[in-house]
Design goal:
The protein is globular, with a radius of gyration of 24 Å. Strands 12-10-9-8-6-7-15 form a seven-stranded mixed β-sheet, with helices on both faces. The chain has a six-stranded parallel β-sheet with strand order 2-1-3-4-5-11, with helices on both faces. It folds into two domains: 128 residues, Response regulator (Rossmann fold), CATH 3.40.50; 182 residues, Rossmann fold (3-Layer(aba) Sandwich). It is 40% helix and 20% strand. It is an alpha/beta fold.
């Protein structure tokens, strides 16, 4: 009897050693910092959709967390430090003003990988990524020029950063490709996300004679105002048709899901490195989506042809002769290089408004 009692646990232990599965690898802990609430559409919403897509794709290999509504500056640094200290090994900082805080935290947490959206500085453990939104803006501008009765568009913009200026210029150039006399009026917010202020700016532009709106801001307020006041709108960041079912012509949207999944995989494989990424239409990071179904067939055909030419590199907003607001020729022929586009600090002909000092 004693022999059987001793043998039983030894046999059980032996079986456990043979049959128990290997201990699963710890999931990669991934953190996301958002400048505004996630909401139902907009900049933060698109990033969170990508976070969820990454989770779905990688399953138990990743464990994500996010903090929304984090102000740029000290709050962002505090949140990133807490994440890094808590074992998060990959952090996506998804707003332009998070760059300096991210650099400071990255310097203190060498084992953590940081990805910053829209930045222009890197470190050994901090990379930057962005999308060529201006490509979608050019197509959207052409569509606006084709459909506008007044030939005047309004553009609600956050801050005068190169990315914003690129978008305004591309939109104006696209619009003037459809209507050589078209103009784009700019209203500055001094904020990325301020729904009441976005609405106020949109109303002022409509009051000034614009019949199509575009924006570089974070809420659906501009689209909602367009719907309410019976003017057209180009959605931005997300498809805004739920907020402007009659007003939206199309939407310039971002899709970060593939990029986020690839970055997580590269960290898990030990192959991550700081190599800035600037993806566009051909990479699937930017799309002109939700094109209004009721547009004339010939307009949709030409829009598709222009998109094909842009992807092929034979046409686009910054190809050919470029003249600025003051009438100076900035480029006679050829294509503007990435460095010049990335540092853009001037408006093209057709833009009405000044760059804040």
């Amino acid at each position: 009897m004693l022999k059987n009692l001793i043998g039983a646990p030894l046999l059980a232990l032996s079986c456990a050693l043979v049959t128990s599965p290997a201990r699963a690898a710890e999931p990669l802990k991934v953190g996301f910092i958002y400048v505004s609430p996630i909401g139902q559409a907009g900049w933060t919403y698109q990033h969170d959709q990508a976070r969820q897509a990454m989770e779905k794709s990688l399953g138990a290999k990743v464990q994500t967390r996010f903090v929304e509504g984090v102000a740029e500056g000290a709050d962002a640094e505090r949140v990133m430090r807490e994440m890094a200290a808590g074992g998060t090994t990959l952090i996506f900082a998804t707003s332009f003003g998070y760059l300096e805080p991210a650099l400071r935290v990255a310097a203190d947490f060498k084992g953590v990988r940081f990805e910053h959206a829209g930045g222009y500085k890197t470190a050994a453990n901090l990379n930057t990524y962005n999308a060529r939104f201006y490509e979608g803006r050019w197509l959207a501008g052409w569509l606006a020029g084709k459909t506008s009765m007044s030939g005047v568009a309004g553009y609600v913009a956050g801050f005068p950063l190169p990315e914003v200026i690129q978008g305004i210029n591309a939109f104006a150039l696209g619009m003037r490709a459809a209507n050589q006399n078209a103009t784009v009026r700019v209203a500055w917010l001094g904020s990325w996300f301020d729904p009441p202020k976005e609405r106020e700016a949109a109303l002022a532009l409509i009051g000034g004679g614009t019949d199509v709106l575009a924006n570089h801001s974070g809420s659906p307020a501009v689209a909602q105002t367009a719907q309410e006041r019976g003017v057209k709108v180009i959605g931005y960041q997300s498809d805004m048709s739920r907020f402007a079912p009659d007003a939206q012509l199309a939407a310039v949207t971002a899709d970060w899901s593939g990029y986020y999944t690839r970055v997580a995989q590269s960290v898990m494989a030990g192959k991550w490195k700081a190599q800035p990424v600037w993806g566009g239409l051909k990479d699937g990071m930017v799309r002109l989506s939700a094109v209004q179904a009721t547009l004339p067939a010939d307009v949709k055909r030409e829009l598709a042809a222009r998109e094909k030419a842009l992807i092929a590199g034979t046409d686009g907003p910054f190809i050919g002769r470029l003249v600025d607001q003051e009438g100076r020729v900035r480029q006679e022929h050829g294509a503007l290089g990435d460095d010049a586009i990335a540092k853009m600090d001037w408006f093209v002909q057709g833009v009405v408004g000044a760059l804040p000092k």
